[in-house]
């Protein structure tokens, strides 16, 4: 292994550890807090966490094995199963992010009708579609033997070693990425940009009220006035930063891999093997980023994590005090 492969191997290990711990923490918060379970977005987060965990334990370690050994991990049948899971889970996670963006759009643009438009049965219907959508592409690729070990990515993924079905595979690949990555990206952009538009409108209304109040309060201290103006600026930037994070992480993690898969369809264009692994690592890194982007950095999840830690520390302190009380005096 050269230096680049060693660095990539360490990167995969770090992604596996972070993804495993963070997604398990999201799952613990979901099971611990009944308020999170009652909320409709919690179902979408649960589905996304489920996909990320399965991808972490099933595909990432095998990519590490393929990278280190430079050989296919397991037999052809085993690799086909893993490739089926990789196609299904990656598609499902993209569509889950699109579903979360639709949920936020309805909540912000139609706040008074949100509970009638997005009920648990509506969320279950959306999740049913994401599963059916993901299952259809995965099943077609597997039944046509278009999943297997791909040396460029050191992974069991979409692959077509047969020249006889090259045209069909090209059509399927373009169709697949158009209705997974591109569709999800368009949904994210449309919904979040509408959310940003509404958020900026409300910020302007708040700013107008704040400025009118500052004008009336002529005796207000300059430092208080300055803090109010700074809070206005932070409020405007907060919504933009969140929307940029949602769309930016999606593009940063998925776009390089999808573009590489499209470029790969043209045999005349050479692709660096190290870049193939890097693009695959970027898609895996999304599974490690999602818990922070969609869950753990939210106030409700932070509070739940704090409650869990306090409960564990309290229990450990009670156990320690009980052990000391049972010890005989010398």
Automatic annotation (TrEMBL):
The protein's name in its UniProt record: Uncharacterized protein
Domain of life: Eukaryota
Taxonomy of the source species: Eukaryota, Metazoa, Chordata, Craniata, Vertebrata
């Amino acid at each position: 292994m050269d230096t680049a492969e060693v660095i990539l191997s360490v990167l995969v290990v770090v992604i596996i550890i972070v993804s495993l711990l963070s997604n398990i923490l999201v799952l613990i918060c979901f099971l611990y807090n009944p308020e999170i379970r009652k909320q409709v977005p919690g179902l979408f987060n649960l589905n996304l966490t489920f996909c990320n965990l399965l991808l972490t334990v099933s595909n990432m370690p095998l990519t590490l094995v393929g990278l280190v050994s430079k050989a296919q991990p397991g037999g052809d049948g085993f690799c086909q199963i893993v490739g089926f899971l990789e196609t299904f889970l990656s598609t499902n996670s993209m569509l889950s992010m699109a579903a979360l963006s639709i949920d936020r759009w309805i909540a912000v643009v139609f706040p008074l009708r949100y509970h009638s438009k997005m009920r648990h049965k509506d969320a279950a219907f959306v999740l049913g579609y994401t599963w059916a959508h993901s299952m259809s592409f995965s099943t077609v690729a597997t039944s046509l033997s278009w999943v297997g070990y791909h040396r460029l990515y050191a992974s069991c993924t979409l692959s077509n070693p047969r020249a006889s079905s090259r045209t069909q595979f090209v059509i399927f690949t373009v169709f697949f990425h158009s209705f997974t990555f591109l569709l999800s990206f368009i949904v994210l952009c449309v919904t979040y940009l509408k959310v940003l538009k509404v958020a900026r409108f409300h910020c302007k209304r708040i700013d107008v009220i704040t400025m009118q109040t500052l004008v009336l309060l002529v005796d207000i201290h300059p430092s208080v006035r300055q803090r109010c103006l700074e809070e206005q600026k932070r409020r405007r930037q907060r919504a933009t930063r969140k929307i940029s994070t949602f769309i930016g992480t999606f593009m940063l993690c998925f776009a390089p891999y999808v573009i590489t898969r499209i470029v790969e369809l043209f045999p005349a264009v050479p692709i660096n093997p190290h870049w193939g692994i890097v693009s695959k690592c970027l898609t895996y890194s999304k599974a490690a980023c999602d818990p922070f982007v969609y869950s753990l950095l939210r106030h409700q999840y932070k509070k739940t994590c704090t409650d869990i830690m306090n409960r564990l520390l309290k229990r450990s302190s009670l156990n320690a005090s009980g052990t000391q009380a049972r010890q005989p005096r010398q």
